[in-house]
Design a protein that fits this description.
167 residues, alpha+beta, Aminopeptidase, 29% strand, globular, binds coenzyme A
Length: 167
Amino acid sequence: MTVSVRRLERDDDRTSFHSGNIELDRFFHLYAGQNQFRHHLGTSYVVVDDEQILGFVTVTPSELASSSEKKAARPRPVLRLARLAVDERWKGRGVGTLLLRVVFQLAHRLAREEGCVGVVGDAKPDAVTFYEKLGFEPVVASAGHLGDRPEPTPLFLPLALIPVDEE
Ligand SMILES: CC(C)(COP(=O)(O)OP(=O)(O)OC[C@H]1O[C@@H](n2cnc3c(N)ncnc32)[C@H](O)[C@@H]1OP(=O)(O)O)[C@@H](O)C(=O)NCCC(=O)NCCS
């Protein structure tokens, strides 16, 4: 595959992207741009082949508080993988894996520069296995729901289990 990964740009054509998931497509077509360029709520990274978008992932800084600790739950910084989707014409060809590698390297960079204990993701029911294969484990979310239906499963991957790419 001769593709590249970069941050979403204002002029990118997002409308021709179709993952087959209506909510994810709607988010990408209507909100990913304004969230990134106007409201600074999150940043999307895209895999492109000659400027055609094959997949995207949206990340945002977040916090995770463990309820298993005896002391009052202390929020810890994490990178939140808010949305991830691959164009239906490109599924099963490694684009999702490539996007996750970007997220993993961002988590390590955040850990070095600002602090980050891992990645949390919100998995659609069909994608739970996809994340679990990578070592993500379910967590109980008491806040921060995206409001999607059906309710996604919150998953966590600690930094120690996240592979570091050779630079
Ligand atoms: C889930 C999704 C992101 C995977 O992207 P992809 O580019 O097709 O995945 P890859 O080609 O990188 O596959 C990586 C591995 O995950 C597996 N996989 C892919 N989709 C899977 C799924 N839905 N469930 C379980 N395993 C899956 C592949 O078989 C492959 O396994 P292997 O390494 O053992 O061969 C993509 O199918 C998608 O956009 N789905 C619809 C939206 C969605 O569910 N997004 C996730 C939301 S939170």
